[in-house]
Amino acid sequence: MIRHMVMWNFDESLTPEQKRENAVKIKTGLEEMRYCVEGVENVRVVIDPLPSSNADLMLDSAFASEEALAAYRGHPEHRRVLEFINSCVSGRRCVDYVEIESPRD
């Protein structure tokens, strides 16, 4: 399984109300992607991080393969949501990795 995790911070020019409204829109848009692309195992967007966090929102997603992740990235609906995200964030961090199940005792 491939994990794709992304964290963003909103542009500081946004009001708290705008940040919240945008967070909900981003969450809805990204989480709906699980129904658009074959091989998307899970998509979850965290929009209420603890105060100890240094990111405003996080995407935690899982894909059956690297090909599924590539299809997700290139999907027109993802590109539409990404355009909106890029219009209201000031930073992005991403980690993609192969998740290996640990042996059970």
Characterization of the model:
The structure is a single chain. Helix content is 36%, strand content 31%. It has 105 residues and is α+β, with helices and mostly antiparallel strands. It has one domain (2-98): Alpha-Beta Plaits (2-Layer Sandwich), CATH 3.30.70. A four-stranded antiparallel β-sheet has the order 2-3-1-4. Helix 1 (16-31) packs antiparallel against helix 3 (76-88). The chain is globular and about 45 Å long.
Q: Indicate the radius of gyration in whole angstroms.
A: 14 Å
* Spatial strand sequence of the major β-sheet: 2-3-1-4
The end-to-end span amounts to: 21 Å
Structural class: alpha+beta
- What is the ordering of alpha helices and beta strands? EHEEHHE
CATH architectural category? 2-Layer Sandwich
Please, how many domains?
Answer: 1
CATH topology: Alpha-Beta Plaits
The main β sheet shows up as: 4 strands, antiparallel
Compose a concise summary of this entry:
This protein is α+β, with helices and mostly antiparallel strands and 105 residues long. The chain is 36% helix and 31% strand. A 4-stranded antiparallel beta sheet has the order 2-3-1-4.
List the main descriptive attributes of the protein structure presented here.
globular; Alpha-Beta Plaits; alpha+beta; 4-stranded antiparallel sheet; 4 strands
